[in-house]
TrEMBL record:
<protein>
    <recommendedName>
        <fullName>Bifunctional pantoate ligase/cytidylate kinase</fullName>
    </recommendedName>
</protein>
<comment type="function">
    <text>Catalyzes the transfer of a phosphate group from ATP to either CMP or dCMP to form CDP or dCDP and ADP, respectively.</text>
</comment>
<comment type="similarity">
    <text>In the C-terminal section; belongs to the cytidylate kinase family. Type 1 subfamily.</text>
</comment>
<feature type="domain" description="Cytidylate kinase">
    <location>
        <begin position="7"/>
        <end position="222"/>
    </location>
</feature>
<comment type="function">
    <text>Catalyzes the condensation of pantoate with beta-alanine in an ATP-dependent reaction via a pantoyl-adenylate intermediate.</text>
</comment>
<comment type="similarity">
    <text>Belongs to the cytidylate kinase family. Type 1 subfamily.</text>
</comment>
<feature type="region of interest" description="Cytidylate kinase">
    <location>
        <begin position="1"/>
        <end position="237"/>
    </location>
</feature>
Amino acid sequence: NQHQPIIAIDGPAGAGKSTVTRRVAEQLGLLYLDTGAMYRAVTWLVMQAKIPIEDQAKIGDLIKEVQLDLIPADSPELPTKVLINGQDVTQAIRTPEVTSQVSAIAAQAAVRQELVRLQKYFGARGGVIAEGRDIGTNVFPDAELKIFLTATVAERARRRTQDLKNLGHQSVDIEQLAQEIQKRDEQDSNRVIAPLKKADDAIEIITDGLTIEQVTQQIIDLYWRRKAEGRGKGTQN
Ligand code: CDP
Ligand code: CDP
């Protein structure tokens, strides 16, 4: 069997998915797929084109025409470079405006259908660690290792506040941020298609009080353990 393993990382906003996933990818030599960046890119595009977010037919047509490129970053600290029709939108897809609209766009059937198709194509040969909301439940249900990464809302808001301060934002309202995070979690968890949900066979890691290094190491340990178990099974059969 030439299939390389797939690791699925899901969880709510600010749990540490992107940060930890990039590091695990680097250390295990896996390709990193940031599916949230894809939903953000489509959201940016819809806003640019001034299409009403409830116009699902138009949004569906728009996606079919667009050229979306994800270029892996050459350092684990940098986000994946995202290009839409050749334009670099790596920064533009992270604005509060995009963040506030992305859940509504990501709930749409046409959007999910097209992006999940691209994600499956990306993972077809394995050797991938993908992060998002529905990776273990929907995109790669047969992934060798599934992790559900989470933390309390307070901790996640604290992390996002720190991120914004590091980017030079002086006054960040942590209470407001906590409310926005909670609202997005609710929208993502309650949508009809592929909601945010822990897969039955996912391992939950609650990251409050854990460093990035500790979480990264836990996932790497689980990965090697899973591989050893897989080999064990192989010799029995
Ligand atoms: O990094 P952050 O947690 O802020 O969010 P993200 O991973 O960039 O994802 C942005 C949004 O995309 C989420 O809030 C979901 O609405 C949507 N998303 C999704 O529906 N399915 C995925 N597999 C990944 C993201
Ligand atoms: O991708 P997701 O929205 O799940 O979270 P992220 O953007 O990777 O992480 C949010 C912030 O939390 C980053 O600044 C990380 O450095 C930080 N973090 C942390 O402080 N402790 C951890 N155990 C994991 C992440």
